[in-house]
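Pinned message: reference record for Carbohydrate ABC transporter permease
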Amino acid sequence: MEGSVRSVSKISVVISYIILIGYTIATLFPFTWAVLISLTPITYTDAQGIEKGVNIFDWPPRLRLFPKPSAFGVPLTFQNFKLIFEVVPLYKRWLMNTIIYAGLLTVGNIILNSLGGYAFARLNFPLKNFWFTMFLATMMVPGQVTLIPQYNLLVKYGLVNTYTGLFLPKLTNVFGLFL
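Predicted structure (tokens):
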């Protein structure tokens, strides 16, 4: 009897590992593919339409990036990154905006959510349970419902088309506070 429990346990562990390895490969493959394609010289891909002034928003897309069979074993290069900065003049601005936005929101969320979470976990203050319940209740409201009221507030305070208006609504969130 004891041997069958062990064998079932070993079989379940093996099956679990097979599933986890399959999931890991399925998750990492697109990322690895994107990194390798970005570092593959342009002559070894079937990219079409790469020239100055190309509209990256064309539909159907003219840029197809699949390696040719001869691309395997080719030395990798950063030339494609230089090319994107030359072809799309606003790319530097877009990249900097993304880095600033992600960095400030990450730091802001870590600081503010940690402080709020600590207050709810360790401190006693009046109406603590009421406020915690209200925060949890707001997690049940879909984000789409709050888009127009948030926009109206940003217009009212003159924060439309400003960095402050971009950061302020997302600077903290209830899920991070609850976590």
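Pinned by admin. Summary line: DSSP finds seven helices and no strands in the chain.
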